[in-house]
Design goal:
alpha+beta
Length: 416
């Protein structure tokens, strides 16, 4: 085997141009596969960070019915039907869970609230009833003014914190801090302006948030205790959870939801980590489908390359007919001749595969830089590409090798 490989490499070196042209299809195919997979893997990781992690590692766990936030039905004590309150002890247990670095209660409404400042009316924003630690949990920093206090949150003080988008929409270029905005018909004093700590403005915690961001005017945060004043009845509180890393979000969200559901007696409603797990699965499914499609297309060039290898090996068999006849006359068995030509075919495609891997990584890196896309080198795909190139050589080398092995030594020697 080693001698066959040495002879194959010597033959490639002696016929450089012919060998290169033979390898060209394999080189292009392997390079294309590496470029596609490296850019798609990198882009997939970037999207996962954007859609799932948001640069803040926060996941929202809310009461849901039919995959939609659940906000109605109360019992005789004005408490949510079948939902016990989320207490301080509940939050303590959640904060003890693995990979959890923060947790906070909240109420939420998306896109259905209304705010007014004089004649300026704003609709389509997200309204949250929160406690002070909510901002750190979900990743907001103070830009202007101050944050709400625990006393204000617990005593239903009518103070509000706006994000920059809402502040601009309601107050224009003037300062919003210290002024009053009417939220759902109730006057609230604006005490602060916040902005997200996410790495990029286009990052969102769920795919639905990304879609809604095209219509949402931003976020308004009022005190947790004043929420029942606005909506006149209590409802299930959600829990915002901050994880150590983005990859922990699906598992942590599921674990927190299961913990909260242990106390829920309403069978038709349950706590869910809102689309964090589904988003991750959807993203993986989409990127896998795209990768499979593009790799299949790129593999067509490997088919062309394999046909080229088979063609040049048939030529080689014809050129070396006297050599084959002499070996068989001296007692070489069919399997020896077969192994020699199969090895030669596999060496040609494997060398082409290695060159293709190198070129593919270089082109992928350059394209990712020029197009401002992420680039991720997958050792698994490098291994797959290299092995695949060898397999191509073996498959398309079978016919020439069998032709050489089945030659009649007398006829072969006569051709000399």
């Amino acid at each position: 085997m080693i001698e066959n490989i040495r002879q194959s490499l010597r033959g490639i070196w002696h016929h450089k141009m012919r060998s290169f042209l033979t390898m060209l299809g394999v080189i292009i195919g392997i390079a294309s596969i590496l470029v596609i997979t490296s850019i798609i893997d990198g882009t997939g990781k970037k999207l996962q960070k954007s859609l799932v992690g948001s640069g803040t590692n926060a996941v929202m766990v809310e009461a849901c019915k039919n995959e939609q936030p659940y906000v109605d039905q109360t019992d005789g004590n004005n408490m949510p039907l079948g939902f016990p309150p989320v207490t301080d002890d509940t939050l303590k247990e959640i904060r003890k869970m693995d990979s959890v670095v923060g947790a906070s209660r909240f109420y939420g409404r998306q896109y259905s609230a209304q705010a007014c400042v004089g004649n300026n009316q704003l609709m389509g924003f997200n309204l949250y009833g929160v406690e002070p630690d909510f901002f750190d949990t979900v990743g907001y920093r103070l830009k202007e003014g101050r944050m709400m206090t625990n006393e204000e949150a617990n005593e239903a003080k009518k103070v509000a914190v706006l994000d920059s988008r809402v502040a601009r929409a309601l107050f224009g270029s003037s300062t919003a801090v210290g002024k009053v905005a009417e939220i759902q018909g109730e006057p609230y004093k604006v005490i602060g302006i916040v902005e997200s700590t996410a790495e990029k403005k286009e990052n969102y915690s769920t795919y639905e948030e990304y879609q809604a961001s095209q219509y949402s005017m931003g976020n308004i945060f009022v005190t947790y205790g004043s929420w029942p004043v606005i909506y006149t009845f209590s409802e299930p509180a959600g829990v915002a959870v901050r994880t150590a890393e983005p990859k922990n979000m699906p598992s942590v969200g599921k674990k927190v939801a299961e913990f909260l559901n242990m106390s829920v007696t309403n069978g038709s409603v349950s706590y869910e980590a809102v689309n964090s797990d589904e988003t991750a699965k959807m993203l993986k499914k989409i990127t896998s489908a795209i990768t499979a499609l593009l790799v299949s297309i790129a593999s067509l060039s490997l088919l062309v390359g394999g046909i080229g290898v088979m063609n040049i090996m048939l030529v080689s068999v014809s050129e070396r007919t006297p050599e084959i006849g002499l070996k068989k006359a001296l007692g070489a068995k069919k399997r020896v001749i077969l192994g020699q030509f199969l090895t030669e075919s596999a060496v040609i495609t494997s060398v082409g595969g290695i060159i293709g891997v190198i070129i593919g990584l270089i082109i992928g890196r350059v394209l990712s830089y020029l197009l401002s896309m992420e680039f991720a080198v997958s050792l698994l795909w490098i291994l797959i590409a290299t092995v695949f190139s060898i397999v191509i050589g073996l498959i398309f080398g079978v016919m020439p090798a069998r032709k050489a092995a089945n030659m009649n030594p007398i006829d072969a020697l006569r051709r000399e």
